[in-house]
Amino acid sequence: MHLRQRLTPVVFFTGLLCFQGRLRAEEPLPKAEEILDKFVVATGGKAAYEKIHNEKSTGTFEFVGKGVKGTMTIYRAEPNKMYTRVDLENIGAIEDGTDGETAWMLSVMQGPHIKEGEERAVSLRQATLREPLLWRKLYKSAETTGVENVEGTACYKVVLTPNEGKPETRYYGKKNNLLLKMTMTVVSQAGEIPTETVASDYKDQNGLLSPRKIHQKALGQEFEITVSQIDYNVDMPKDRFDLPNEIKALAKK
Amino acid sequence: MTSARILAITFACAALAGSQPALTAEQKRLNLESFDFIWSTIHDQYWDPTFGGVNWTAVRDEFRPRIEHAATMPEARSLMGQMLGRLGKSHFAIIPADVYGDLDSHEDAGGTRTAGIDVRVIESHAIVTAVEEGSPASAQGVRPGWEVLGIDGTELAPRIQKVAEVYRNSTMRELYLARSVLAKLAGDEGSEARVQFRDGGGAVVTKEIGRIRPRGSLAKFGYLPPNYVWITSRKIDGDIGYIAFNMFLDPARLMPEFGSAVHSCMTCAGMIVDLRGNPGGLGIMAMGMAGWFIDKPDQRLGTMYTRQAPVKFVVNPRPPVYSGTLAVLVDGSSASTSEVFAGGMKDLGRARIFGTRTAGAALPSAIDRLPNGDALQHALADYISEGGQTLEGIGVIPDVEVKLTRQALLSGHDPVLDAAIEWIHARK
């Protein structure tokens, strides 16, 4: 369960960048790939990641200060299949997914949408299981650009440029090597939405560390995801990642 | 949505400044704190970082010393209002503490009981436009077209005149005229409204009308006060679909019902969506509903401009899409999301709009309480309809302007609906 995969349902609504003050980086900066590899080690190691074939996460989703809450379930399976469902109180379901080819979104409020271009590319990247091991395939470059504080923790700032889409900026703790923050401009049908996501409360599950609190800011609004349960290699129905009927109907047009 | 009214009230209060008591040192301090809050809020949250060319720092430097020297509350309030006025936008206003209390209770009216009748002010007369079936009002013989003369001993004419004067230059005039009457009709559970009517024959009659729970189901959304939300659909003349609902809320219930109503009429000659009296709600629902009528992808109703990024109101086609003739009915009480829907559908050439100009109150806004007890209303974003026109302060201008009249209502007609039906029949 990684920070990136939680972005999709959230950024549907959102955006806001709040960069922390830049610190003077007096020591030589490590190479980005070194930082990214250390993250793999810090969160459990290559062997632990390679044991994962699918994953199911459950938790809650909240619009901070708005009184709107709901539950959230995310399924992912190799190589890059994903299905997310957020059920918001008094609003209904918001679903998002990909079968590895078609990336889509469906909500009771806004109807069905098939993602294309950069929006689709972002979804497929986010759906990639074992992404920390595969970043070299998904990104054409990674560069360490400085050191900044995130919530009082000194972090290396790493800019990753994907094969398709806009660069993402990640902040990895200098000491703990964990991904603590990410900023990116999310491309959605509503436009290009700047987002800031902060991850905390890393916990171990089956030998893998993952954040249990994810706080996102976008378009002046704030969202909080609390992950209560993560299960790996679960029995998953074969049709878990099939396209919903509404998406199939749209695809036929 | 409440800005024009409040701005007018602010300036009216300023006119009375000479008769007001002088401020205490504590009140002056609280006014300065309030001023700083207002300035910072606009500075940090206004969607256009250039403030439309206004030097916002210079504005602060100009007004802050004047607030320090303001002798009375109305004077201080007026200065704060003038500062906001430099932005040249609606939805920015200072709401005096006493007025804020009134507005708050009116806008929470969803939780109170109603008299089961709907009212519009037509040519300075409060006219019943609808009577809820099975309601005490209906049982007592109240009919559309009757004029409401007084409620609980209060004569309405002066009240209507006063509200009309306050909003004389506002597109929201019709909205607040209707609300001022409906607020008076609302009351507590178990209470009765003593209403004086002029009936269809011109006789003055008084009815004791038991107040009832508003129509629909109680819907909650976040910290908004609960609202009763209803949706109705039927077929007119066998082949015209008709859908009406009172708010863009309760999406879990409303959206499937709206979709079912559309799908039950896929071969109909026409469809009518009636948004008269609908004050709006969740903007995203306008896009979702438009998806049942638009089959081309990437169409937009408009764009909302926030400080962080523009947000496109994109319509997702929801096949099977109804591609027949579509009419949308609006009036001066159609506001916000209703205007986003009607304006966007008009701009896309997908619907013909019937009725009267909408309220011109499309911006999302927030109200923050100030340290001095007043409140600040401020818009969070700008909204431009797909045709390139702002809806704020202008509203949606119908393609076919049709006004309700007392005579038409008394004879059992709804001229706006009739015009839409006639147009649909003519296009067969």
Main attributes?
heterodimer, A: 253 residues, alpha+beta, outer membrane lipoprotein receptor (LolB), chain A, 13-stranded antiparallel beta sheet, 6 helices, 13 strands, 48% strand, globular, B: 428 residues, Transcription Regulator spoIIAA, Pdz3 Domain, 2-enoyl-CoA Hydratase, Chain A, domain 1, six-stranded antiparallel beta sheet, six-stranded mixed beta sheet, 13 helices, 35% helix
Question: What features would you describe in this structure?
Answer:
The complex is a heterodimer of chains A (253) and B (428). Chain A is an alpha+beta fold. Chain A has one domain: outer membrane lipoprotein receptor (LolB), chain A (Clam). Chain A has six helices and 13 strands. Chain A has a 13-stranded antiparallel β-sheet, sandwiched between helices. Chain B has three domains: 3-97, Transcription Regulator spoIIAA, CATH 3.30.750; 113-210, Roll (Pdz3 Domain), CATH 2.30.42.10; 217-364 and 380-426, 2-enoyl-CoA Hydratase, Chain A, domain 1, CATH 3.90.226.10. In chain B, the strands form five sheets. In chain B, strands 2, 3, 4, 5, 6 and 7 form a six-stranded antiparallel β-sheet that branches. Chain B has helices spanning 3-15, 25-45, 56-68, 73-85, 97-107, 136-139, 156-166, 173-185, 251-263, 283-290, 337-347, 406-410, 415-426, and strands spanning 93-95, 117-122, 125-131, 147-151, 154-155, 192-198, 204-210, 217-219, 227-229, 231-236, 240-245, 270-274, 299-305, 310-315, 325-330, 352-355, 365-369, 375-379, 382-385, 400-401. Chain B is α+β, with helices and mostly antiparallel strands and 428 residues long. Helix content of chain B is 35%, strand content 23%. Chain B starts with a helix and ends with a helix. In chain B, strand 11, helix 9 and strand 12 (270-274) form a beta-alpha-beta unit. In chain B, helix 7 packs antiparallel against helix 8 (173-185).
